[in-house]
């Protein structure tokens, strides 16, 4: 009985020493002037956080936002999807929002490396147009529209599902449009209705195109470069060519039917005119005699 009590006392003593030791390390981590690496990763990606520590070192620890994760290879604070490799690197199998925070690896009380992990979501960028500001979308190319040059147009750019909120940049003929420009309207950020922690961004461009052709692009310049583009053609030579071609494409059946009717009408008219002329010629001969 006394032997069991001695064993239990030793276990309690070790646990107590561990908590005192980790508490001391926590204070030391907060005070240490360690360079923190900012690491931005995609949602659901696979991440490895390296910690180069010699196997001869006795105490190695991983921390997450001040909570001890691993004491050597003992998991003291399990987090879903987080594990430890043989070389003491921290492995996150599938990154989730709950993994955002400060990961710190220490060696014998001294911080070795620290990572400030942020989770990013790349948006889908699309353009939409006010129906009153353009004539029609070209059938042969969805990226080309034709407009009435007398009226300004409004183009709306929507970045669906981003984290952090997407900052959108308008580019007109290879030149950035300042966000402070009076032509950039209604910049809004709203929570995504279907996914938590995700934001939708909206920006509207007010534009009066000049020249024959204007290239407009709405760009997301985040972890990845995403762009949605449109080429605006205005009525000046190019308009006639493309618009007439589009009319023929969109109304081809009507054109074919009309052509057949006109061919028949011309044929009948020609026959009638021929007989009328012949009758007039014969009458002229008889009257002359």
From TrEMBL:
Keywords in alphabetical order: Disulfide bond, Membrane, Transmembrane, Transmembrane helix
TM annotation in the entry: 262-287
Record's signal peptide: none
GO cellular component assignments: membrane
Pfam families noted in UniProt: C2-set_2
Residue ranges of every copy of the Ig-like domain listed in the record: 123-231
Subcellular location, record wording: Membrane
Membrane topology according to the record: Single-pass membrane protein
Source organism superkingdom: Eukaryota
Gene3D superfamilies according to UniProt: Immunoglobulins
PANTHER family xrefs: IG-LIKE DOMAIN-CONTAINING PROTEIN
Protein's UniProt name: Ig-like domain-containing protein
Source organism (scientific name): Stichopus japonicus
